[in-house]
Amino acid sequence: MLSPDQVQAYHRDGFLTLPRFLAPDVVAATHERVWSIVDACPPPGGQAAVFSSAERALTTDAELFASARDVRCFFEAEALDAAGRLTRPLRQAVNKIGHSLHDRDPFFDRLFRDPRLAAIAAAIGLADPLLWQSQVIFKPPGIGGAVRWHQDASFFFTTPQTVTTFWWALDDATRDNGCLWVQPGGHRGPLRERFVRDGARMVRQALDDTPWPAEAECWPLEVGAGTLVVFHGLLPHGSAANRSAAPRMACTLHVTDGRARYAGENWLQGEAGDPIRGFVHASARTDHAFVRR
């Protein structure tokens, strides 16, 4: 899947962009499946699950932990009134779906276990890839929340560091609607913080006071729908709020190398009888439905 130059670029920059990875019909089918999940979400009440990167206090740890090996909808804070009722249509109110689409939904099992992803993982050095977390991130028009600067290794700590993110654009992503911003080469810097589970709480541990990158050090990843971005777990990245009229849906998959030690303090853990799997389908068959045409 990757040329030697692409592998070199990934290790140099900490990320790699692969345009047109998903064919337009696959992007359309993914939208269709996403909306069917959203339409089946229970309507929010007084205890609606809200997700906010900028204001972590709005997301309860209990809601987050309950979604670890499930498929649940989280809402944008601005889509709810003081009583927790929707102020806009359901499809315009969801922040994300998480966190086990790859194991709980047959459509996403096929999407996230595309044989090409296994080839990419092998090319960049993941010898025993394990799929931990998957999400659909919406950034709905007008109210899509900002995602603060962070490193994915803060949530999926391994020794040595191996977590790798696969990020697909399901809409065109631009500066106007909240595209990713990255710091090229920033993966060679330190891990600044960890988020660990302490009983029923998620706790932030400060590790290094290196400041997050200034705007002049960063690149906006303005990409078309169907593009795949692969990035290193130490790469600083984030995105602005979406105040435009255009949606910016994306989906993500987080993978580690099974040869590394996965920290027992990480918020997401495997469960007895529900093992963390790699890129092999549950049915152990090869599905070529998502090969680019």
TrEMBL record:
GO terms for molecular function: 2-oxoglutarate-dependent dioxygenase activity; iron ion binding. It holds the Pfam family PhyH. InterPro entries: Phytyl_CoA_dOase-like (IPR008775). The keyword Membrane does not apply. Keywords: Dioxygenase, Iron, Metal-binding, Oxidoreductase. It comes from the Bacteria. The keyword Iron applies. Gene3D superfamilies: q2cbj1_9rhob like domain (2.60.120.620). SUPFAM superfamilies: Clavaminate synthase-like (SSF51197). This is Phytanoyl-CoA dioxygenase family protein.
